[in-house]
Each structure stands twice: as structure tokens, then as C-alpha cells.
Recover the amino acids of this structure.
């Protein structure tokens, strides 16, 4: 049989463990909500598509490539990293930046994706977005700061740290 002290220790440990899992589940939910505010599924898809075309030529040297030739790159950009592709992209790419522009008296915004390469070259792609499709955190920053441009550094999926 367990003594009274042992029973108290077991109950205390069980309560501490339950509290830990409760707090962890709450942190996971709030963390994913913040990430969702910084982007949207449609914007994520456009970024992956634009990067696939840009990096195929700029980082991997595939000129006029087909979707089949870019398959490993496409998968890497969508969360299934290929070690060879990741190594080659990391070696060539210095930074990926997003620039959001708000036009005065317009119901649209524009996002420009800029890839800066280690050799000094750069590649860009741009897209106009209805204002409601601009991520919530970006719209909020425009409202707080009152400027016409907001910048974000974009991180490759394989380089993102996912907290437990």
C-alpha cells in the first residue's frame, strides 16, 4: 500500500502534469492563430508558386523548366523538404522578403516577393490583392503606422522553428 505521503506526491504530480498539458494546448491554439494572421492560405499558395518558378532558375539553374522538373522544389516549398534542394537553395539565397503596398483611395493592395541571392542578383514577383485578402496583421500595421509600405522577411518552411 502507498503511504499518505506517497499518495499526496502522486496526486500532486498528476495535477502538475495535467496543468502542463492544459497550458501547452492553449499555447498551441494561440500560436497558430497569430501565424494565421500574418498570412492567408491564398497568399501562402501564391508565394510557393512564385518561389518555385523564381528559385528553379535563380537557385537551381533550371531555365524554362517544367512543373515535373520542379517537383522536388515544389514539394520542398510546401513542407516536404528534399535535402539536395534545400542545400542548393540555402547556398544561393541570401533572403526572401515580402513588401506589401497600400494604395491611397484604392480597394486593393499589392504584395511583392523579392528573392535576394548571395551573388547580388535579385528576382521579384508581384500580385495585386483585394484589400480583404491582405493578411489581418499587415492591415493592422498599416492602420497603426499610417504608411504605404509594410515589409516582412519570409522564412522557408524547412527553416521554421515549430515549438512543442
Amino acid at each position: 500500500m502507498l503511504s499518505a505521503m506517497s499518495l499526496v506526491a502522486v496526486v500532486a504530480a498528476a495535477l502538475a502534469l495535467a496543468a502542463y498539458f492544459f497550458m501547452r494546448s492553449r499555447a498551441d491554439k494561440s500560436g497558430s492563430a497569430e501565424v494565421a494572421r500574418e498570412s492567408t492560405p491564398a497568399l501562402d499558395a501564391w508565394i510557393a508558386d512564385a518561389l518555385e518558378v523564381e528559385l528553379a532558375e535563380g537557385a537551381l539553374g533550371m531555365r524554362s523548366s517544367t512543373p515535373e522538373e520542379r517537383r522536388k522544389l515544389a514539394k520542398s516549398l510546401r513542407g516536404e523538404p528534399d535535402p539536395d534542394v534545400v542545400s542548393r537553395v540555402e547556398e544561393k539565397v541570401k533572403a526572401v522578403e515580402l513588401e506589401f503596398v497600400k494604395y491611397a483611395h484604392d480597394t486593393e493592395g499589392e504584395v511583392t516577393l523579392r528573392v535576394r541571392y548571395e551573388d547580388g542578383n535579385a528576382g521579384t514577383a508581384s500580385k495585386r490583392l483585394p484589400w480583404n485578402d491582405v493578411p489581418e496583421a499587415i492591415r493592422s500595421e498599416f492602420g497603426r503606422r499610417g504608411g504605404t509600405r509594410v515589409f516582412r522577411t519570409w522564412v522557408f518552411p524547412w527553416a521554421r522553428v515549430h515549438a512543442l
